[in-house]
Amino acid sequence: MLKPLYNKDCELIAWIEPGQNIFDTEMNWLAFIVDGHVWSADNVNWLGEIDLLTCFDRNGKVFAWNPDYKVENKRRVFKPLKPFKPLKPLKPLKPLKPLKPLKPLTPLGGWSKLSLMEWLNQ
Known about the structure:
This protein has 122 residues and is mainly beta. The protein has one helix at 116-120, and strands spanning 3-6, 12-17, 21-23, 29-34, 37-40, 46-51, 54-56, 62-64. The chain is built from 1 helix and 8 strands.
């Protein structure tokens, strides 16, 4: 089941298939998840860690979040070994646009300054 991902301004920026994949709002495959890390679907570049429904940039700052899970920064981690790229998943059906969530408290240390495209092109 897909879950919405929001940026710091509560704007819908992507959809996550928890533990598996991240899609843009048009259901294009952006990234895949392996062992708590997010990797670009285009070039298998490491994008950062993920904690269930919270995505972090490479510095451990919250990049994208879902209201069903905590919003707090992590310590910076080292880049893991590059995984094998999985087969492209089938394009999921586009879910209905969710209601805009309430803005969470700013995580200690602040939000990631990256946009979706900057995060994907690290």
